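Researcher: Here's the sequence for the chain we discussed earlier.
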Amino acid sequence: MSSKPSKELETFINPQPDRDYTIRIDIPEFTCLCPKTGQPDFATLNLEYVPDKHCIELKSLKMYVWSFRDEGAFHEAVTNQILEDLAQACNPKFMRLTAEFNVRGGIYTSVVAEHRDPKWTPPAPVELP
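Model: Thanks. This is the structure I predict for it:
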């Protein structure tokens, strides 16, 4: 197999650093292991961020997400760890990660974690007629 899981996240230079815009990435095949039972947990990760100087490179993101497949983690912990790693890699103006875990024991879990650069002020919402 030529590709392997990796904790290394690559970035590239933001092509429009003077404009606030949102990048949305849906990752429907996230898996990790339940730390109590060792059984697989499945989730869809929804990443939204406003880049500053760098953007996350998608192949490295895929390899990074894959690296959790054999790791035991509570939903809350793994969501916050992924957000922390992504924010550290690209230093965005704003980043939100929503992890929507599949049903386990009749319970669905969604975890939402956010990062915000304290110097960034979001633009005012535009209300269209």
